[in-house]
Amino acid sequence: MNYKQFQNKIESWEKISFTAIIYSKYGADFEIYALDEHSNTKSRIFLCYAENEAEAQRLVDQFSLWLTKLNNVTRKRLSSEQAMRAALVQQE
User: Which domain holds residue 24?
Assistant: First the structure.
């Protein structure tokens, strides 16, 4: 999975704010998930499989960096939108 695929998967769930990347062992498989730790439901989406625990940890590390980047961009965009709305209200 490349960054763009990761971004599309995360952003396709607009109402969920993902906060962590985890892996889970299920039988012989290692599954990678994005998780919303702050919601009551602890929402999560499946991202991909890993062949072994070392690869799972590597993917968690990589996806965690990407998630931080996406969340920072989203926060900046929301702050800019709020500032623009406030400026429009002041002009009225």
Answer: 3-91
